Each structure stands twice: as structure tokens, then as C-alpha cells.
Amino acid sequence: MQPTPCDAPATTSGCTSRRSLPEALEDAADAARLAPSVHDTQPWRLVLHADRLELHADRTRQLLTLDPVGRALAESVGAALFNARVALAAAGWAAAAEPVPDPEDPDLLAILRPVEGRPDPELAALAPAVAERHTNRRAFVEDEMPDDLMRHLARGVACEGAELIPVVHERHRQLVARLTQQADGSQNADPAYRAELRSWTTKPPSTGDGVPPAVVPHVDGRQHDDVPLRDFDSTGAGALPAEAHSTSAQTLVLLATPRDDQAAWVGAGRPWSACCSS
Ligand SMILES: Cc1cc2nc3c(=O)[nH]c(=O)nc-3n(C[C@H](O)[C@H](O)[C@H](O)COP(=O)(O)O)c2cc1C
């Protein structure tokens, strides 16, 4: 059998070579930087060592009004950790990745350490999506997500120690819609929240930070979505269509964690793992 060239995703056990350890760790750091993050704050500090990549919280980028306890920050770092794991697997390395609650260093959220062993093929297969993925704020369609896709996602989320809960009953859907409206109303009534959101939606493009008008719906005050989306159009220059058609009739899921602590929040940021794949 021809050996798999291991600068390609190492998805088979026929792989006889792989990216060097320093290259693989650099790939992992590059991929981490492309992760989704709350308000695109990119609230991480990535530290490359010879044998590992450390992911630290960057508290200077924490949203102190929206996210005073750092939950969304930790979820964002969890997403960066996930991307890094994907890149490491694609570079031909297995990995040990564990959140590391350390009283001496509470901002060290995760260590990713390449180890001997077969890289996870399901993780490696996601590598091309890392650079393609983006948050989509265009209008929702009416179709429901297929049940088997939902089961697939729920299984992946469970592997990361979190829980994906489909909201099925009409009564529950209405409740989620109402709570979302209340949360949206109370956030927007807070001038400090609006100021913080404005500062992360008006960054100069050269910074590469924050949510630019090009990727948010134009909000003209007339739209009343049943399940409101966060209004990022702080300058009225939003370039996407105003109507999101976000209703309680569409697929609704809740992402929950078994505990409300930093390690669990990091887990909630990792949307999928192949830990159950073998
Ligand atoms: C924890 C977390 C919370 C987020 N909350 C919202 C949100 O409420 N509304 C929204 O439109 N996008 C939300 N996002 C998506 C981010 O705004 C998005 O990832 C960021 O702007 C970078 O853009 P990208 O995902 O296209 O790379 C959230 C992302 C994370 C990780």
C-alpha cells in the first residue's frame, strides 16, 4: 500500500510520516486563532513551548459588562482549543488535551500536548473547515434540521462533557422565545452593555478585532423577530438583510454544562470531538 503523505490530513493508519513537532504545534496555534469568539474579542493568549501549546485567558479582552464572570471568554478559549486539536490531528499527531484548573495560574485554561498514537481521523477530517467556518447571520430558513444530524451533534457535544438539548415542545419553545426577548430587552436597556458592544463593532479593520458591519443584519427598528438575535448594528451600517426570520418554529437547541465553572465552560466551547468515534 502507498504510504499516506502526512502533510495531508492523517486520516488513515497507513501514514508513515507526519509534520515535525514544532510545525504541528505552529499549525495548532494558527488554527486556534481562527476560532469563533464572543464579539470576536479573541480573548486568548497562545504560548508555544517545544512540547506543547498552552491556551491562556487574556483578561484584557474580557467583556466586563456582558461577561463579568468570564463564561463566554472561557467558551471562546474552548473553541480555540478545539481548532488546535483539529490541526494537530491533521498534522498527524495524537493529542492529550485537558483543561487544567490550577489555583496558582487560574488563567491557564488548557494545555495541548502532542503524544504518540494514532491521530483522531474524525478530528483531522475537519481541518479544511477551520479556515472556511464563519458565523452566519443571514435569514433562517423554515426547514428543521434532520433528526440524524441532530443526534450526531448531540453525541459530539456529549463527548466534550456538555449537553445539547433540543427544545421540542411548543410550550418550551414559547418559553425560550420569551426568555430570549427578556434577556435581549434587559441587555439593550443597559447603556454600559451598548457602549461595550459599540466598541467591539467599530474597531478599525486593520486590528482584525470585533464584528464589522459587513457581517451583521441592518437593523431598522421595524423587525420584531420572535427569537431576537443580538443586535450588532451599532452604527446602522449593517450590510446583511434586516429580516432574520428567527422564529420559535425553527430548530431550537440549548447548550448546557453539568457544572457552572470554568472547566465546564471551556468544554462548552468545544462543539465537537471524535472521542466516541472508535
Ligand atoms: C461564546 C460565544 C458567544 C457568541 N455569541 C454570539 C451572539 O450572541 N450573536 C452572534 O451573532 N454571534 C455570536 N457569536 C459569534 C461571534 O460573534 C463570532 O464568532 C465572531 O464575531 C467571529 O466571527 P466568525 O465566527 O465569523 O469567525 C458568539 C461566539 C462565541 C464563541
Provide the fold topology:
Elements: H1 21-32, E1 44-48, E2 53-57, H2 71-90, E3 94-99, E4 108-115, H3 121-125, H4 127-132, H5 147-159, E5 163-166, H6 170-188, H7 191-199, E6 253-256, H8 262-268
Antiparallel strand pairs: 1-2, 2-4, 3-4, 5-6
How would you sum up this structure, described in words?
With 278 residues, the chain is of the alpha+beta class. The chain folds into two domains: 21-134, NADH Oxidase, CATH 3.40.109.10; 168-251, no CATH class. 33% of the residues lie in helices and 12% in strands. The chain contains eight helices and six strands, in the order αββαββαααβααβα. The chain has helices spanning 21-32, 71-90, 121-125, 127-132, 147-159, 170-188, 191-199, 262-268; strands spanning 44-48, 53-57, 94-99, 108-115, 163-166, 253-256. Strand 3 (94-99) and strand 4 form a beta hairpin. Helix 1 (21-32) packs antiparallel against helix 2 and helix 2 (71-90) crosses helix 8 (262-268). Flavin mononucleotide is lined by residues 36-40, 72, 75-76, 79, 134-135, 137, 211, 229-230. Residues 36-40, 72, 75-76, 79, 134-135, 137, 211, 229-230 line the site of flavin mononucleotide.
The number of domains is 2
Rg over alpha carbons: 20 Å
Low-pLDDT windows of residues? 1-14, 272-278
Q: Strand tally, please?
A: 6
Mean pLDDT over all positions: 88
The CATH class assignment of the largest domain is Alpha Beta
Strand arrangement across the biggest beta sheet:
1-2-4-3
The shape, in one word, is globular
Look at the helices and sheets and give the structural class. alpha+beta
* Helix content bin: 25-40%
Bound ligands, each once = flavin mononucleotide
**Major β-sheet profile:** 4 strands, antiparallel
- What's the CATH H-level superfamily name of the largest domain? NADH Oxidase
Number of helical stretches of at least 4 residues: 8
CATH architecture of the largest domain: 3-Layer(aba) Sandwich
**Approximate strand percentage:** 5-15%
Q: What's the end-to-end separation, in Å? A: 23 Å
